[in-house]
Design brief:
The complex is a heterodimer. Chain A has no helices and eleven strands. By secondary structure, chain A is an all-beta fold. In chain A, the strands form two sheets. In chain A, strands 2, 4, 5, 9, 10 and 11 form a six-stranded mixed beta sheet that branches. In chain A, a hairpin with a 4-residue loop joins strand 7 and strand 8. The N and C termini of chain A lie far apart (41 Å). The model of chain A has no long low-confidence stretch (mean pLDDT 94). Chain B is mainly beta. Chain B is globular and about 40 Å long. The model of chain B has no long low-confidence stretch (mean pLDDT 94). Classes of the chains: A mainly beta, B mainly beta.
């Protein structure tokens, strides 16, 4: 069965720290890997990764996909309290369905 | 440019009742997908509508049904509600032609079953 596993499940750090969130998967064929940020309501799109080894970057956030080792990481540098959220990883499978991980709950303490 | 809108934002029902949730997709999108998200979990795919037809379905019982209207808006109906149906119901819209593209989510409807 296809599955996406995120780790850690939760993480508490202080403002200014750097965090690395992990997303590993067991999916036979997939088209893309997506990262979303979910605060109280709608997940908001962060990154879409299709090729291995190519880093995507947006401000303090960056992400990379490793198709050989079957994982992706999301890095956040110089964290701020506004980064507190649940970070979700999802794969678009061969049928264009999204397979979601359970998310990593990130808490940034001032 | 309006994003995805869902109504109502919160709803409280009792076991055995029926509920209808509504979604208007982002302007320009023609496909609507529905998800159930339990507390502390990732979203679970319920079904997807395009051209007023259910195109794909996740592992949900027939109590969950839907509809898409000519203006691309959609409804999710749940019959014979169970306590376990308590969750955040998310609607996401996209372009069918761009299936390998990120979906845009609404803020969800928080459904509580007493």
């Amino acid at each position: 069965e296809d599955k996406v596993v995120q780790s850690p499940l939760s993480l508490v750090v202080h403002e200014g720290d750097t965090v690395t969130l992990n997303c590993s998967y067991e999916v036979t064929n997939f088209r893309s890997l997506l990262w979303y940020k979910q605060e109280k309501k709608a997940p908001t799109f962060l990154f879409m990764l299709t090729s291995s080894g190519i880093e995507k970057k947006s401000g303090r956030l960056s992400s990379i996909l490793d198709k050989k080792e079957l994982f992706s990481i999301l890095n956040i540098t110089a964290t701020q309290t506004g980064d507190s959220a649940v970070y979700l990883c999802a794969l678009i499978d061969s049928n264009y369905q999204l397979i979601w991980g359970a998310g990593t709950k990130l808490i940034i303490k001032p | 440019d309006a994003g995805v809108t869902q109504s109502p934002t919160h709803l409280i029902k009792t076991r055995g009742q029926q509920v209808t949730l509504r979604c208007s997709p982002k302007s320009g999108h023609d496909t609507v997908s529905w998800y159930q998200q339990a507390l502390g979990q990732g979203p679970q795919f319920i079904f997807q509508y395009y051209e007023e037809e259910e195109r794909q379905r996740g592992n949900f019982p027939d109590r969950f049904s839907g509809h898409q209207f000519p203006n691309y808006s959609s409804e999710l109906n749940v019959n014979a509600l169970l306590l376990g149906d308590s969750a955040l119901y998310l609607c996401a819209s996209s372009l069918y032609a761009g299936k390998n593209q990120p979906q845009h989510f609404g803020d969800g409807t928080r459904l509580s079953i007493l």
